[in-house]
């Protein structure tokens, strides 16, 4: 009986290890992830509006038809990015993802507390190489550190009613995602 329990425990342990390894490894081997699908329509370091989701064609998972959506595929190899977005009248959010879809930062218009969301996106190494300007405080400048050189910024603006979708799309059209000079 004890031998059977040890075999069962070993089987469960081995199954758990295989399951965990597969779950962690699978996203890196996917060929049609969101970043890859957006390569066709979204240039690097530029904001691109996405078409409204349809039942038969969706570029990103879990797209809501009540939101206007735009993306910025970024590459920090040449230096940090400056990002800015005028918030919409209803609700605006900005989410940051690594190349493999891991979310690492998000902000919305309520958390920003301003009519414009402005931030600098850079790697930890680029942040450590920045000159320390004592006149600029963290309240003046929001710095987001990306864990990878490439990734996605997903922008969403709510259209509370279908007739207000144009307003939400216009808010996203003000977004800028460009290399710092």
Describe the structure in your own words.
The chain has 181 residues and is an alpha+beta fold. The chain has 2 domains: 1-30; 34-179, Sandwich (Immunoglobulin-like), CATH 2.60.40. It has helices at 2-29, 34-38, 109-112, 124-128, 165-173, and strands at residues 47-49, 67-75, 81-86, 92-98, 103-108, 116-123, 143-146, 150-158, 176-179.
Distance between the termini: 71 Å
Q: Output the number of helix runs.
A: 5
Query: What is the domain tally?
Result: 2
CATH A-level architecture of the largest domain: Sandwich
What would you call the shape? globular
How confident is the prediction overall: mean pLDDT?
Answer: 87
CATH class of the largest domain: Mainly Beta
CATH topology of the largest domain: Immunoglobulin-like
Order of helices and strands: HHEEEEEHEHEEHE
Largest pleated sheet: 5 strands, antiparallel
Strand content bin: 25-35%
Class by helix and strand content?
alpha+beta
Strands of the widest sheet, in order across it, are: 1-2-8-4-5
Number of strands: 9
Taking pLDDT < 50 over at least 5 consecutive residues as the criterion, the unreliable ranges are none
User: What share of the residues lie within helices?
Assistant: 25-40%
What is the CA-based Rg, rounded?
A: 21 Å
């Amino acid at each position: 009986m004890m031998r059977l329990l040890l075999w069962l425990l070993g089987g469960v342990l081995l199954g758990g290890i295989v399951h965990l390894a597969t779950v962690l490894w699978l996203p890196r081997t996917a060929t049609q992830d969101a970043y890859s699908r957006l390569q066709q329509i979204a240039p690097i370091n530029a904001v691109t509006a996405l078409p409204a989701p349809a039942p038969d064609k969706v570029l990103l998972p879990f797209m809501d038809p009540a939101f206007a959506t735009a993306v910025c595929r970024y590459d920090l190899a040449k230096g940090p990015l400056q990002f800015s977005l005028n918030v919409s009248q209803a609700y605006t959010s900005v989410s940051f993802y690594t190349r493999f879809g891991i979310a690492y930062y998000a902000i919305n218009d309520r958390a920003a507390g301003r009519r414009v969301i402005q931030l600098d996106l850079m790697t930890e190494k680029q942040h450590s190489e920045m000159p320390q300007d004592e006149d600029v405080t963290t309240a003046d400048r929001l710095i987001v550190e990306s864990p990878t050189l490439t990734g996605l910024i997903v922008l969403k603006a709510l259209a509370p009613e279908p007739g207000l979708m144009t307003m939400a799309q216009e808010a996203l059209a003000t977004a800028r995602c460009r290399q710092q000079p």
